[in-house]
Design brief:
5-stranded mixed beta sheet; Arc Repressor Mutant, subunit A; Nucleotidyltransferase, domain 5; 39% helix; 14 helices; 19% strand; alpha/beta
Length: 411
């Protein structure tokens, strides 16, 4: 049911109803490209005459286009297929890594139009100023009404309402007013979310195959640390203070390695990309290994590098121990892997499954799927774009985890 408003007398606000029905139709087209008008009436429950009226308005606004279906086998007039006009609306996505920020301009089908990389500065204020200027440059050629908003993947523990980074230990950021520095005088709405959660959102919003339709799953990201995005019954798990799902800081070994969070023995210290790079450097005793990142270790393993093979095998065991906890706590239908785990899944999966079978009861493990993300290095940015789109299409029955109001916040 679309969100609508009522006047003080209780009468339905026609403008809200009209917008709600338009978004309902647009969302049906977004989810099912090549629908006909008759299909839309059937899917949305709107009358054929109402669909026709809405479609004429959307065509005049150049938000959609119609194409004749070729090779139509039925007798009679060929039906027309409806598609969103990609360039009609755009969204901006921003993500942070330990060395730089990536900023993209994407159309509302998720296709990237432009991308910019901004090297990280010693001064966080200068760094965020540069990102702000990049957002302005990317959107300069677009009318304000065509920019749906800016989605930002924040690291660590952050305030999703204001965009304030409360603590991101691996970045050495504490109390950073990222939202204020990024938004400033820009006229578009900004939306903020933890990066790992956005990766989970991207998996449901844009994945054409394995991730599509998942309602209970966990996304594991291994970039600049270890994070998890958890979807429960189709909604992002947030927790009381929007900080749920920090599985990277659950404990594998109480007396283990010191973690940047201040604790010892965190899963992140044994299974993250940083842990893989460190382990390879230690095992190789230097020899330039300090310059090799986790993806580089995967590539070396494929070339037969003995140290790289041993590191991945050992790390796979640590990955599996953390996944045991994830499976026993959340009972997911699937676990989706990102970053070096996605790149090296074929090299590590046998060891991971061996540990899982040894430690998780067969009846509990049955049915759980584990597979690499289809979006690999771009999942966080795609999640940023999905965050913006989920606000535009929210509450219009699209079934995506960011749609319900408790999953994302507009300010």
């Amino acid at each position: 049911m679309p969100d609508v408003t009522f006047t003080t007398s209780g009468a339905l606000n026609k403008s809200s109803l009209r917008q709600g029905n338009e978004r309902l139709v647009l969302n049906a087209i977004r989810q099912h490209p090549t629908l006909s008008r008759a299909d839309i009436a059937r899917i949305t429950g709107l009358s054929p005459s109402t669909v026709t009226f809405i479609m004429e308005r959307l065509l005049r606004q150049t938000l959609v286009c119609e194409e004749r279906v070729e090779n139509h086998a039925q007798v009679g007039r060929r039906p027309t297929a409806l598609r969103l006009r990609p360039e009609a609306r755009v969204a901006v996505g921003v993500e942070f890594t330990l060395t730089h920020a990536r900023t993209v301009l994407a159309d509302w089908t998720g296709a990237v139009i432009k991308e910019r990389s901004i090297p990280r500065s010693a001064s966080h204020e200068l760094f965020f100023d540069k990102i702000h200027d990049t957002i302005r440059a990317l959107t300069r050629a677009k009318p304000e009404t065509e920019v749906l908003g800016v989605g930002v993947a924040l690291p660590g523990f952050s305030d999703r309402t204001t965009g304030k980074i409360i603590a991101a230990e691996n970045f050495n950021w504490t109390g950073i007013e990222a939202g204020r520095l990024l938004q400033k005088d820009l006229p578009f709405p900004f939306f903020y979310e933890n990066g790992a959660k956005l990766r989970a959102l991207a998996e449901t919003w844009f994945s054409p195959s394995e991730g599509k339709g998942l309602r209970d799953f966990v996304f594991v990201t291994m970039r600049g640390g270890l994070g998890t995005g958890i979807i429960i019954n189709g909604q992002i798990l947030q927790g009381a203070f929007s900080a749920a799902a920090e599985f990277g800081h659950t404990i594998l070994y109480p007396e283990g390695r010191r973690c940047a969070c201040g604790n010892t023995g965190c899963w992140e210290q044994y299974a993250s990309d940083l842990a893989v790079a460190r382990a390879y450097s230690e095992r190789s005793r230097g020899r330039g290994a300090s310059e090799v990142d986790a993806e580089g270790v995967v590539e070396l393993a494929r070339k037969g590098d003995r140290a790289a093979i041993d590191v991945l095998n050992e790390t796979a065991g640590y990955v599996a121990l953390g996944l045991v906890n994830v499976i026993m706590v959340f009972n997911p239908e699937a676990i989706v892997l990102g970053d070096y785990l996605a790149a090296g899944w074929d090299l590590m999966q046998e060891r991971i499954w061996d540990v899982l079978r040894a430690r998780v009861p067969a009846y509990y493990l049955a049915g759980v799927r584990i597979f690499p993300s289809e979006h690999a290095a771009d999942s966080s940015l795609k999640g940023c774009v999905a965050l913006v789109l989920s606000q535009y299409f929210k509450s219009f029955g699209d079934g995506n985890p960011a749609t319900p109001g408790n999953s994302v916040i507009i300010h």
